[in-house]
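Sample intake sheet
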Amino acid sequence: MKPAILPLAILLFVSSQLWSQSTTNENQMKWMQGWTNFDPNNKEYAEAEEELLTIIDQDSYLRNDVVYLMSGNVYVTNGATLTIQEGTVIRCDTETSTSLVITKGSRLIARGVKGQPIVFTSNKSPKARKSGDWGGIVIAGSGTINSPSEAGIIEGNFLPQYSLYGGKDDSEMTAIMTYVRIEYAGKKINKSKELNGLSLYALGKKSILNNIMVSYSADDSFEFFGGTVDMNNLISYKAKDDDYDFTLGYTGELYNIVAVRHPYISDISGSYAIEIDGYDKKSGMTSLPLSLVKIKDATLINLSDNSNYQHTGAAISSKNLGRLVFRDSRISGFANVVKFDKSYSSYGEIEKSFSLENSIFNVHDTNVLVPFESKAEAQKLLKYNMFTTQFKSVGDLFEKPLDSKNPKFTLKQSRDSYTVMQ
């Protein structure tokens, strides 16, 4: 049952703040125009003309008047910089294990622009592409990770001499990526492991990553392994596993992020819009900071309705003492807002690790799932946010969320179904 509403004066104040927030969001969502593609399986790409080398060990430049084929794992090594011109298309072989790996000490400069994004996509023809057609993009930096080893080996079957990441340089610059689309990545390595659309290992603050869309990844869209890089204007579209996954003490800020999930697309182990681990339980915890992610203006949507909402889970999974701070966000279509694991032993511990403020949520089950008794107390965690008194289908809350080519994920103007939690 929903808690009682606040006094009218507080209700009006909070409502006015949320109205302002959602109106601002409608303007901010315009950043998605001009470079995204929500229907990539019908996109025609020219045939590949030139195949990339397996080892790029000197500064190299990819031009937009050539369509490239990436076949097998491509490693940028020896401190080299791979620069990709705006509008360049890289088609990725689906018959081999294909990924772009920026090794530690090397760099990727991929500056797309609106109207001319850089595209990494499946080499299959239109309507034949599917999640996991190829591996993904892996970037290894020299920043800190919360692990006793102080360094790690990137996940996947990569050459060991090119697989090291991590260090002590949180101010390093390994990548510049703007206006980039990554389509149909996340190839399965074995029964228990798949690659992500974009894997970021220990990237420092000076890296610049924004306006990136990962669509139809067979594993996570974005995964952060330690590091301190801040990012903004990110889209995860219909990932099979998590949309944004944080671990190994990642500490940073994300602004303007979108996750669009489908109730029938999920990994057997459970999938979330946000999954955070304070540290990796397998490698152990150190005195370095645990993962702390500050997120502003997030839109986390499951495209569920009254016929399929029962297939959804929590929007957020918080594990191993991970810490999350949300502001000015929208969470809709899930069973729960957030689920905590057994590493949080009390409400007081959770209260220090999670906050959601000035936001709107629409879920069909218990708002907060906790691993201890006094579960009613945990619902106070979401005070001063708006919620729907009854679960609403995605089409009832958002403008054109199911449009296959030009969806719109801004809230409709009506606020009649919202109230305020105590």
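Comment: Confidence is low (pLDDT under 50) at residues 1-14. The first strand starts at residue 50 and ends at 51.
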